[in-house]
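Why should sequence recovery work at all? Because a backbone constrains its sequence more than one might expect. Tight turns favour small or flexible residues, buried strands favour hydrophobic ones, and helices have their own preferences. The token representation captures these environments compactly. In the example below, the structure is given first.
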């Protein structure tokens, strides 16, 4: 009997909460984009939405974002490490994630600044190189390898 009563009370509370949320939404009051509850205290406004401070978190690891750097994709916010791990390719030379210009050579992506001759490590200023054994060489090194 007590379980049935608890279940009934929880169901009624849920219905009341939905009604309250609908009333807040239609009245123009701010509500949290993540939890859909009214915002009665401090809020974070980002990506065209409002969030409770405690709801403003990385969608991947759930770390609170606060005022830290964040990225967004498909209406979801990510901390920098999660975004980079999920969406960016690491450079096959230095291991850092590639943001901006890169070179695709032999099926590997490298930062333009990391693209260097395999022999002498001189950067390729124009991205022209001589391929040999799946390696990139400058004109001076290609004959020696």
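From this structural description, the recovered sequence reads:
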């Amino acid at each position: 009997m007590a379980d049935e009563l608890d279940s009934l009370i929880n169901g009624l509370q849920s219905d009341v909460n939905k009604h309250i949320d609908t009333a807040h939404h239609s009245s123009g009051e701010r509500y949290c984009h993540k939890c859909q509850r009214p915002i009665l205290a401090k809020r974070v406004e980002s990506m065209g939405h409002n969030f409770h401070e405690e709801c403003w978190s990385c969608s991947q690891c759930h770390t609170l974002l606060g005022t830290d750097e964040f990225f967004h994709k498909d209406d979801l916010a990510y901390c920098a490490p999660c975004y980079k791990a999920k969406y960016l390719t690491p450079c096959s030379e230095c291991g850092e994630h590639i943001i901006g210009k890169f070179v695709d050579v032999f099926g590997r992506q490298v930062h333009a600044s990391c693209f260097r001759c395999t022999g002498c490590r001189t950067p390729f200023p124009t991205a022209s190189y001589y391929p040999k054994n799946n390696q990139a060489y400058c004109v001076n090194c290609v004959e020696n390898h």
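A few observations help interpret the result. The CA atoms of residues 15 and 22 lie 11 Å apart.
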